[in-house]
Amino acid sequence: MRTFDISPLLRSSIGFENLNRLVDFASRVDGADSAYPPYNIEKVGDGEYRIQMAVAGFGQDELELVVQENTLVVTGRANAETETGERLFLHRGIAKRAFERRFQLAETIKVTGADYEHGLLNITLVREIPEHKKPRRVEIGTSPVADGRATLMAAE
Description:
Largest sheet: 4 strands, mixed
Distance between the termini: 60 Å
Radius of gyration: 24 Å
Shape: elongated
Strand content: 25-35%
CATH topology: Immunoglobulin-like
Number of strands: 8
CATH class: Mainly Beta
Mean pLDDT: 76
Pfam families: HSP20
InterPro entries: A-crystallin/Hsp20_dom, ACD_IbpA/B, HSP20-like_chaperone
Low-confidence stretches: 27-33
Order of helices and strands: HEHEEEEHEEEH
Protein name: Molecular chaperone IbpA
Structural class: alpha+beta
Number of domains: 1
Strand order of the largest sheet: 1-6-5-4
Helix content: 10-25%
Family: Belongs to the small heat shock protein (HSP20) family.
Keywords: Stress response
């Protein structure tokens, strides 16, 4: 019997555990999902997350972050002048190819900031739950509407 490992589905989704959305997203075949650049997703605290991407060789001006609807898109494009410089590489082991990495975010996840240090791009995310979606305590007691219906039903 074959087992289905859903851990690859969880690595690019942050802040929600809705399996239907994960399976739907994973079933899209676009071939664009590669292993470059490598990244980590970590839970920093209660409702706080961080995406850390290894983008060695890229400068801050060559990286772009865009949040549109529930998708975070991180794009890296090398500047033309740095690629066609007077440098002659005997071995080029640090990949500096263009990339686009997409992360599906839950509706409650907001990107709050990003910084670039030592070849690592750190993106900070926070779960912000609106007041109307937060759990609230409901007192148990008699409801005037329920009592009115009971009286009306008894009269019929």
